[in-house]
Amino acid sequence: MMHYQGRPIAIRYPRGVSTGARLEGSSRPLEIGKSEVLHHGTQVALFRPGNMCELDLETSELLKKEGISIAVVNERWI
Q1: Mean pLDDT of 52-62
Q2: Which listed residue, 7, 8, 22, 48, has the most CB atoms within 10 A of its CB?
Q3: Phi and psi of 64, rounded to 5°?
């Protein structure tokens, strides 16, 4: 545990195949309470947790062709 501080912890380990796992050059700590904007848009905003955003990203690309601009936000903390 990189930043263990003597408090209770939980490790989530998915079973099976996962979608949308983006591994960038280096990992960085998650800011507590902060969401992540995955796609910027101006007409509609979709807020979802974790891997549910993958479908929203696909949807935003499809609707972009129809002239609809959608923001996709990963709500890491609910």
Answers
A1: 91
A2: 48
A3: -60, -35
